[in-house]
Amino acid sequence: MGLSNRQWWRIIAGTVLFAITNALWTLFAFGKSELLSWHGVINVVVLSALFLLMMIWMTPGEGNGEDGK
Asked: So where does this one cross the membrane (predicted)?
């Protein structure tokens, strides 16, 4: 079934937090030039998108209360 508004907010907040953490890690590990290069930007965007898709896939829907679904 669909996700509730609360679940969507948690998924989006987790994805934003993941993107910020990934950007900071890239900045401190490789420097500002790597973060601002196409490689660094694509790295942050692609990993954040994969994180978002995995969280949507792994989050159980609200269901209708039958059979635990």
From this structure: 12-30, 36-59
Domain boundaries, the chain: 5-58
Angstrom distance (rounded) from CA 51 to CA 59: 12
Q: Residue written as tokens 């907010």?
A: 9
CA-CA distance, 31 to 35, in Å (whole number)? 7
For the residues of 4-59, what is the DSSP string, one character each?
PHHHHHHHHHHHHHHHHHHHHHHHHHH-HHHHHSHHHHHHHHHHHHHHHHHHHHHS
Calculated CA dihedral for residues 51, 53, 58, 64, nearest 10 degrees? 140
